[in-house]
Amino acid sequence: MNLIAIDIGNTNIHIGLFLKGQEKSINTIAGLNEAKIKSIIKELWLQIPILESSKEKKRDGVIVVCSVKSDWTKMVRGIVKEQFDEKIFVIGNDIPLPMPVFVDEPLKVGTDRVIAAAAAYAVVEGAVVVADVGTALTIDLVDEHGAFQGGVICPGPAMKAKALKDGTSQLPEITISKPEAPYGKNTHDAINCGI
What we know:
Shape: globular
Mean pLDDT: 95
Strand order of the largest sheet: 3-2-1-4-5
Number of helices: 5
Strand content: 25-35%
Radius of gyration: 20 Å
Low-confidence stretches: none
Distance between the termini: 40 Å
Number of strands: 8
Largest sheet: 5 strands, mixed
């Protein structure tokens, strides 16, 4: 199968190209950079082969979207329609979720969490805990039968760094990186280690 997979998060959009089921590329773009998103989608779509039987030169591929941000989904839908006269398939709307979701309000669980949980379960083939670090840090539980059971949502590293800067009078906002030691000998390193 030939596929462009688009993961729309709260901060970034990840766009992957898979040809005959094999990963060819993954691109990460700031969600506000519409021109770059359009350019990458176009570049990847043109790598998908044309159907041999198509007189209209239709490409033998689909564009699948997992999204937590509806306005960016609308933007991507518009780009794909305008550039290629194609439609996107949104997980949770056009494509059913890949596992049962046993929580109080299943329709309110971010599809990104369910997709990550399903992928982890497919690899482990048993009960699994899944952590995803992004704008938010999510930790979710899949039971031994492959059902999403819920989890926790916490601020992600960048959000924690911003909160420390905004909530104090002297702490700077830092860019998080892998700490070189378990504790810091200066303010920057202390914040970095703490987060």
